[in-house]
Amino acid sequence: MIDxxxxxxxxxxxxxxxxxxxxxxVLYRRHQGPVYRFALQMSGxxxxxxxxxxxxxxxxxxxxxxxxxxxxxxxxxxxxVARNQVRRHMERGKFQVPIHDDGGASLEPITAxxxxxGDLTLREGLSALRQAILTLPLHYREVVALCDLxxxxxxxxxxSIGCAVGTIRSRLHRAHALLIQKLRDAKETPxxxxxxxxxxxx
Length: 202
Description:
Layout: H1 9-17, H2 21-43, H3 46-62, H4 74-91, H5 116-124, H6 126-134, H7 138-149, H8 154-161, H9 165-188
């Protein structure tokens, strides 16, 4: 008997279309965490992130035919659905609610050695970075969430958002510059978050 855990997303989708509920459960468990983290970083609200995650997988169940494996893997498709749901929630005015460090999902960004943004966030802490990301315009916030937090390639992020790879590169560059400035400003402002109260990256 084949273990569903060893099957590809495409094979699990094929089984799900045939009525295999266990195959869908495996798909859900495989992708639920990353989709939730993306929605949380985009919205700043755990309840909104929960809602968006459920809506993404309900949409997948209802509209299997919308996913075309020839255009890329399932993950960018799910992020694209999540992105659309985030925008719908934003139109309804359901966020932003600040993310706090008590009980939130782990959203540690991956930073490269010598990266000025990475160097700064290592010093300034995760809490300040989360708050700074939430203040970015939506089109910058989503590329940071996809490329830095979820480690997607530029090509995958471009498929999720529906734009050119060059657009992803330029938005990410601008987003990093804005984050560096926001974190420096927060450090220099007396009302900003204290260094000692921040939880730094491990």
